[in-house]
Amino acid sequence: MTWTKKQICSFVDLTSLNSYDSLKSVKTFLADALDFEKKGFPVAAVCLFPNFSAVAVNELKNSSIKTAVVAGNFPNAQGFLSTKLNECELALEAGVDEIDIVINLGEFDTGDYDHVVDEIRAFKGLMPEKSLKVILETGYLKTPERIRLASELAIKGGADFIKTSTGKEFPGATLEAVEVMAEVIAEHKSERKVGLKISGGVRTYEDALAYFEIVEKHLGKDYMTPDYLRIGASSLVRNLMND
User: Pfam families of this UniProt entry (predicted)?
Assistant: First the structure.
């Protein structure tokens, strides 16, 4: 299938996750997202820090754009589990549609896989009707074997999407990592459909097409919808509009 630039935009989680984000800058960001929609380049969702949940829900209430936030002590997931869960609860109370969390890399590294799965289950337990995206941080995991195992654990814990990267401390998405993740999702398709979010370094139309080709090869045409495939990006939409 030949994807148009407008179609690619419809898969994007338009992202603003800066240390200097403010209520003013976020409102400008949300206005831009609404303007993109008016110009025929609607995005799937916006993704923000959780303290901006309420303003995002309010500003986007009359649009088709979903609201997503990172939570659970993004981007490192360190801290008390109760605190991490409470952050998610506050975002959910504000009305967000989706929450992105980071897998517990420390416990993963020590081999305490039950802990990793149980923690994800605790998050999913807060949002049975909302979408939970679990970030694997593939740039840290590095090897196909570790990426495969992390994907398996996230799915076992109840992830609705598995996501490549935070885009912060470690390298972002790679074609190789996404291929491994797509293979694991394909192996679980008979049980339930788990989505895939590609995040970190997708900046051009050509970048997006390369990832789409991999996803379609492993998961088929029925996965080529924003319900099951997303691209986390901050500059991609403007680049598509300006090309």
Answer: DeoC (PF01791)
